[in-house]
Design a protein that fits this description.
The chain crosses the membrane at residues 25-44. Helix content is 78%, strand content 0%. With 54 residues, it is mainly α.
Length: 54
């Protein structure tokens, strides 16, 4: 769960920097890709079900 939140945080930060700083639009694209990867990771993790370590 911490990895998912970290990836979303990185995506948001890259997106903000990419939109604010002129000429760094590629950071926005990287932020979008990281966000999509985070969503895919979350979907795979939650889809597996309720297996929990004890």
């Amino acid at each position: 769960m911490a990895l998912l939140l970290f990836l979303i945080l990185v995506a948001v930060i890259l997106g903000i920097i990419g939109t604010v700083v002129e000429g760094l639009v590629y950071l926005l694209a990287i932020g979008v890709v990281v966000f999509i990867c985070a969503l895919a990771y979350a979907a795979l993790r939650f889809r597996r079900g309720g297996r929990r370590r004890r």
